[in-house]
Write a structure and sequence with these properties.
seven-stranded mixed beta sheet; six-stranded mixed beta sheet
């Protein structure tokens, strides 16, 4: 953790949100929020004290008493208003996001927009939080279900999508009648806090949405707190596994979306230009800092001859600050992230992969202090190499070869992760075989990053996910609600009693 320097001490302090008020933390532990393109200190973020975390949960618990009884239409109208406010402030939100995270302004707008789609989905809660009814299941007996909120829920979000992923979480949790405690990434919390300001402006009552900041201690406090009923997490496999195990042992519902190693199969019949564009965009966009990035291309048969063209396409990408016009690849989020990516590139060379394109130490005029690494491509990549076995989370594309579609599918299925995968082909038969035989939760057919729209649910699988129900869509309504089943019989004065019944039957 970096203690504030004299310069950093002058930077504004990121606030906590407790009980509907933005309050300055009394913490003695702080971290600088740094622009990754310039190293400028933008703000200081506190690591909330145990008392502050307790106050946030207590505020949410108290607010739940009334919020859970708020009519569903009133809840929906708040999110109709929030989506309007997000649209009106799109440029401002993108600028904040780019400054603290580094991605390009167009990509930052995309980050906000994909979250906005979930807010719009939340506004349709009246059609989502519906129970079921079976009339007259026995003589005069009806059975029906109620989907009721759980109570205080919490979310832990990562640095790479500081707008989208908080918007995956708190709108759906709150619109289903819960209250929420959010812990955004301490690396780039500013756009998240601006979204929370807009949420309060849209009408979310005091205590329904709370925000605390921090690191491991805050995560553990959320996992352990007896008043928190459910936790949503997106982030690394290491932290996600810890959260799932610790919070599950504490009796909570948990959903964890974690690390990935996403493959794309390229068949030789694919439309070459469209495929090259898709592959390079999905591999190097957001500087590779996407859990759904294509990080491994599996070239099948004659498509293995396309490597020079992939390299040529990657060389056309502009590396610069996200604010510069025409930038394709911005900086990675931190100096530590840069060192890790460069270290893995060195390991790739040492372990025998062929470095087709070296993106280390690019010249970026005007940004000599930025955390930049350009598009990097390895061929001859095999399992057992660090660049294949680990999620690099940088602009590094690994290329492997296969002689057939069956071999490529077997190669992907042998990898433990199951977040996303894609195939590029003009063959319907090949595409159908791929979608049936591949053991990955989210599949793209000529679509490189198959993240579903919010009417569906995010369905990563295997080592990329812990928990049964994914974020947003129909699944998350079930995650954030408790199903109650009611069996009812009403008698009137004309009902004839049949005496005592000691059987289990509902006669």
């Amino acid at each position: 953790m970096n203690a504030p320097s004299n310069v950093a001490a002058l930077a504004p302090a990121v606030k906590l949100l407790i009980g509907g008020k933005f309050v300055e933390s009394k913490s003695t532990e702080w971290r600088n929020v740094v622009n990754p393109a310039t190293q400028e200190v933008l703000a200081r973020v506190p690591f909330a004290t145990p008392d502050e975390i307790e106050a946030a949960v207590a505020s949410a618990k108290e607010a739940f008493k009334t919020w859970r009884k708020t009519p569903i239409g009133a809840r929906a109208r708040i999110f109709l208003k929030l989506q309007q406010l997000i649209r009106e402030h799109m440029a401002e939100l993108a600028a904040i996001l780019t400054a603290e995270q580094g991605k390009t302004l167009p990509d930052a707008e995309g980050d906000v927009f994909r979250g906005l789609e979930v807010v719009e989905h939340a506004a349709g809660i009246g059609n989502l939080q519906l129970g079921e009814l079976a009339n007259n299941v026995a003589n005069g007996v009806d059975t029906y279900t109620l989907l009721q909120p759980l109570g205080v829920c919490a979310g832990i979000t990562p640095f790479n999508f500081p707008a989208m992923i908080p918007l995956w979480m708190f709108p759906m949790a709150i619109v289903t009648g819960n209250t929420f405690v959010l812990k955004p990434s301490e690396q780039d919390p500013m756009v998240t806090m601006r979204l929370c300001e807009l949420a309060l402006e849209a009408g979310i009552p005091p205590g329904v949405l709370n925000v605390v900041h921090g690191g491991e201690a805050a995560v553990n406090a959320i996992c352990d707190h007896p008043d928190i009923k459910a936790i949503s997490f997106v982030g690394s496999t290491r932290v996600g596994t810890h959260v799932y195990n610790r919070a599950s042992l504490a009796g909570k519902r948990v959903q964890c979306m974690m690390g990935a190693k996403n493959h794309a199969i390229i068949l030789p019949d694919a439309n070459k230009e469209q495929t090259l564009n898709a592959l390079v965009g999905a591999g190097f966009g957001a500087a590779g800092q996407r859990c759904m990035a294509v990080s491994v291309a599996v070239l099948v048969g004659e498509a293995q001859q396309w490597i020079p063209e992939i390299v040529a396409k990657a060389k056309t990408l502009k590396v610069s600050a996200g604010t510069e016009k025409g930038t394709d690849v911005g900086p990675v989020v931190s100096c530590a992230a840069l060192a890790r990516v460069e270290g893995l590139i060195e390991k790739g060379l040492a372990e025998g992969a062929k470095l087709e394109l070296d993106g280390r130490k690019p010249q970026v005029p005007g940004y000599d202090k930025g955390n930049f690494v350009g598009p990097t491509i390895f061929s001859g990549v095999k399992p057992g190499m660090a660049i294949y076995d680990q999620e690099i989370f940088g602009p590094v594309l690994c290329i492997a070869g296969a002689n057939s579609l069956d071999e490529a599918i077997e190669f992907i299925n042998a990898n433990p992760h199951g977040n996303g995968t894609a195939i590029f082909t003009q063959s319907g038969a090949a595409a159908r075989k791929f979608q049936e035989d591949i053991d990955v939760g989210q599949i793209g057919i000529n679509v490189p990053i198959p993240v579903p729209v919010p009417i569906f649910s995010f369905t990563g699988s295997r080592a990329s996910k812990l928990g049964d129900l994914g974020p947003y869509g129909k699944q998350v309504v079930l995650f954030y609600t408790q199903t109650k089943t009611v069996t009812a019989r009403w008698f009137d004065d004309s009902t004839t009693t049949q005496g005592v019944n000691t059987t289990i039957s509902l006669r």
